[in-house]
Design a protein that fits this description.
Lambda_DNA-bd_dom_sf, Rossmann fold, elongated, 434 Repressor (Amino-terminal Domain), six-stranded parallel β-sheet, five-stranded mixed β-sheet, HTH_LacI, transcription cis-regulatory region binding, LacI/GalR-like_sensor, 14 helices, about 350 residues, 3 domains, alpha/beta
Length: about 350
């Protein structure tokens, strides 16, 4: 018994008595046809068993995959559960959906030697989000010779979308310290990518410093110094993940050992965890303990006391980054603004 040959675009066009370009436009360039004409062609194609042009064939003909790779510095589970990363990915998806692109999520947490072959020809451009990827991964991405845009970092020769993390941290720390603080402490988020949660020695040589955290720490330290504190004497505590589960044990120990009257937190999630634990202990906020966040997530603005924080528009960053990598925007280095939210903490 002979096998039925698969239906082709050319056969569909012959059956309908139209050109192959017309059928192709119905699938790939709907703006070239009226809605009625396009629906007629798609309905007929489905009845004939034709689902559309082969993605592999399109790639061979055009040299394009209609895929944008997004390199995440953290694992997929962590990134998809994070409010800031989620906002960024939503902004990217909004642009890619409108342009007919697909999003491919990649993670620098995987070994470079396992990723190498899978990178080749897989995407029309790449976004790199978070911290600077390992040298091998970055070299592989550059070797693709496709548009490459970084988000929240700057690398030589590459386009970037970012906020000024140092300036944001400096501004909120100045605001918090203006009320006076005798025992300030800093709660860092992944100060170093390979350290567990707990107190960090200020003069230690961190093997894998997190670029975003380093910028925020620099802003905090400048404000502390301006207020008459020696930054090296201010307790620095590290949390390995931006979750309640990761933060709570570290904050419990911090409250026991450091007894701060001001806690400068590198994320809203850390600040909200500290606020919850302080309330459970009967510590009055802001009368006994003042604290600040960073990111401006909705949860911090919906509760009482409302969180004092720095707001960044992660969704807008995602939109801009996606427009840059797809060539819709020709800007090279974009710095999005941040601003203070004067809460009650």
């Amino acid at each position: 018994m002979s096998r039925r040959r698969p239906m082709t675009l050319k056969a569909v066009a012959a059956h309908l008595g139209v050109s192959t370009a017309t059928v192709s436009n119905a699938f790939n360039r709907p703006d070239q046809l009226s809605s009625k004409r396009r629906e007629e062609i798609l309905t007929a194609a489905r009845m004939l068993g034709y689902d559309g042009p082969s993605r592999q064939g399109q790639t061979l003909r055009t040299g394009r995959t209609c895929v944008i790779g997004v390199m995440l510095s953290d694992g997929l589970g962590y990134s998809l559960g994070d409010s800031v990363a989620g906002g960024l990915l939503a902004g990217i998806a909004e642009v890619l959906d409108g342009l007919g692109y697909h999003m491919l999520l990649l993670t620098d947490a995987a070994k470079t030697d396992r990723q190498g072959a899978s990178f080749n020809g897989v995407a029309d451009g790449y976004l790199v989000y978070g911290s600077i990827p390992e040298a091998g991964t970055l070299a592989l991405l550059r070797h693709q010779h496709q548009p490459l845009v970084t988000v929240d970092m700057r690398l030589p020769g590459l386009a970037s979308v970012r906020i000024d993390h140092r300036a944001g941290a400096l501004t909120i720390a100045r605001h918090a310290l203006a009320g006076g603080a005798r025992r300030p402490a800093i709660l860092a988020l992944r100060m170093t990518l390979d350290a567990p949660g707990g107190r960090l020695a200020r003069r230690s040589q961190w093997s894998q410093p997190n670029s975003v955290a380093m910028e925020r720490l620099a802003g905090f330290d400048q404000a502390l110094e301006e207020a008459g504190h020696d930054p090296d004497q201010v307790p620095l505590w590290n949390v390995a993940g931006n979750t309640f589960e990761a933060a709570a044990p570290v904050i419990e120990t911090l409250l026991d050992e450091s007894g701060p009257d001001l806690l400068l937190c590198m994320s809203d999630r850390l600040a909200l965890t500290a606020l919850t634990l302080a309330e459970q202990r009967g510590i009055a906020v802001p009368e006994t303990l003042r604290l600040t966040g960073f990111d401006g997530i909705a949860e911090g603005q919906r509760r009482r006391p409302m969180l004092t924080t720095v707001y960044q528009d992660s969704h807008a960053k995602g939109v801009k980054a996606a427009r840059m990598v797809t060539g819709e925007c020709r800007e090279h280095d974009v710095a999005h603004p941040v601003w203070l939210i004067y809460g009650d903490t």
